Amino acid sequence: MQGSLKEKYFASLLGLAIGDALGFPFEGLRLEDLIEINLCYFQRGKFPPGTWSDDTSLTFLTVESLLVCQGLNLRDLAFRFWRWLKEGYFTPFGEAIGIGKATRKALLRFASGILPEHAGGRGERDCGNGSLMRLLPIVLWYGDASEKTLLARVWEASSLTHAHPRVFLACGLYALLLQRFILGQKLTEALLYVRAQGLSLCKENRLFSREALHFTPLWDGSLFSLPVEALQTSGYVVHTLLAAFGILFHTNSFKEAVKLAVRLGGDTDTTAAIAGAAAGLYYGLAEIPLPWLDGLVKGRKLRELANQFVTEVLEQKNKERI
Fold first, then answer.
1. Could you report the per-residue pLDDT of 23-50, keeping only the tens digit for each?
2. In this predicted structure, what is the pLDDT of residue 300?
3. pLDDT, tens only, 124-176
4. Domain containing residue 276: CATH number
5. Of 282, 304, 302, 307, nearest to 292 (Cα)?
6. Is 236 left (phi over 0), alpha (psi -120 to 50) or beta?
7. Please, are residues 120 and 155 in contact by the beta-carbon 8 Å criterion?
8. Is 168 in contact with 127 (CB distance < 8 Å)?
């Protein structure tokens, strides 16, 4: 947990992009297929090494929207996501890469005139990780707010594409962990805190109480006693959240966390993006290897926007203290 808060915020945003780019060429492969892969450098898949996908695009579009609107504006966010889908806006090579079915359907609903807060899918098949992967900037922007306010903003942002209570609960748990890291809490203490707060949410909210069973490995602690090879890494939001928590628990550096997230296979780009965002925030910028920082496609653009965003967030924090 080294470095200034500014460096940690910056590391979280770039850590997400690095995890995305590191895992993107191997999406869908199995653990046994990835044992011999050299992950010290970005590898080539269908695109050049260092190419990032929808995880990074939608995260940094959220960054843009928060900056322009000085807070969450769901309609502005939806328009930016639509431009990404239809125009290739904020993409590595001018086309939207890696979009999930639920996100595509939600954006098409928005384009047809549905209000953005009603566009997200609410069915059992809408429990993918497409909103979990992009909520980091919301937490950084509202990290000083009360937990109630933070969760409300996170769920509002998720509702644009994913509005099932199970997704909301997963996003809330991840947001609370990130907020604990912002406050400087140690990893094990933060995970215990999130578990306790998650149980309280399920007890207090009828919709979440119905979803609690799906998160049992977190509640009973079995998630942390499992061998890492047993972590499930599909695009299902519960699998992704629990895998990220397990990865953080079983590793001791940013580098270890994102490498393990990729080596587990499955939805490698999103698992590594989510683990990378959390690990970047926890371990700081000094822990990110330079070949990864320097190897991102359009890395300068990502660094400049991340720096602008982090500077604005911290200036807002300083104003509130005065």
1. 999 999 999 999 889 999 999 999 999 9
2. 97
3. 999 999 999 999 999 999 999 999 999 999 999 999 999 999 999 999 999 99
4. 1.10.4080.10
5. 302
6. beta
7. no
8. no
Q: Can you tell me which residue has the tokens 């895992």?
A: 23
Tokens coding 297: 């496609």
Q: Which domain holds residue 121?
A: 5-321
Kindly state the tokens that stand for 146.
């009360």
Q: State the pTM of this model.
A: 0.97
In the block, which residue shows the tokens 């807002």?
316
User: What sign has the CA pseudo-torsion 37, 40, 46, 52?
Assistant: positive
HSE-CB at 187 with a 13 A cutoff on CA atoms is 21
Q: How many domains does the chain have?
A: 1
Amino acid 95: pLDDT: 96
| Amino acid identity at 240 | T
Q: How many C-alpha atoms does 284 have within 13 Å on its Cβ side?
A: 9
| Residue 152 vs residues 88, 145, 169: alpha-carbon distances, Å | 30, 11, 11
